[in-house]
Amino acid sequence: MEILSKVVLITGTRRIGSVVGMELGLRGADVVLSYNRSRHEAESAAGRIREAGRKAAAFQADVSNAGDVRALVGSVIREFGRVDILVNMASVYRSRPFEETSEADWDDNMNVNLKSAFLCARAAVPSMMANGGGRIINFADWLVVSRRPRYKGFLPYYVSKMGVVGLTEMLALELAQHQILVNAIAPGPILAPPDLTDEEDLEVRKATPLGRWGGEAEIAKAVVSLIETDFITGECIRVDGGRHLD
Question: Structural domain of residue 77, as residue ranges?
């Protein structure tokens, strides 16, 4: 699929999502950035995309809520005419010991990391079908794809991202006949958390064969490649600098 003149909806535009949106805008797409609380970041990215000569908008939505998702996709179609590409990046990521993990923690991870991807796909697919095809890109995690739950304290996160892999595979099968390709990206060390210590940073670099953090641009490149492919579907691609080889 060519990116030029396509309409892209990205959920979860904080940090990496804004960079992905900007890259797609520079390649000629019209971009909608959906945010929950990060309004300034989403609107700033939309402004930069418009400055580059493409249409862009930032819409608020809780993508774990079916009503919000229907309203979001409806707004995109009213203002942009259709949805060609859906990038599900909305995610929560926080550590908590198992004995302190509550039902609310479980629900939050499942709703934002997994349920939102299903809801957004369900809402966007009719537009893709009406226009002869589309692309859906979900976000998993390198550990999940490697089947290596290496770090304690992330039980609901890990399980929800396992669900994203399953969702990706089943959606790919369900939607292939409509020329809607569904894939996932599994990031590794892309951006260092702001509270990371120098010692922790060095540990990550040593454990990554390429010896460095990837940076947001590497995720944008992966998104572009999964949009442009016409024959890859149902895959989950690690973007981790070889981290899974350690």
Answer: 7-245
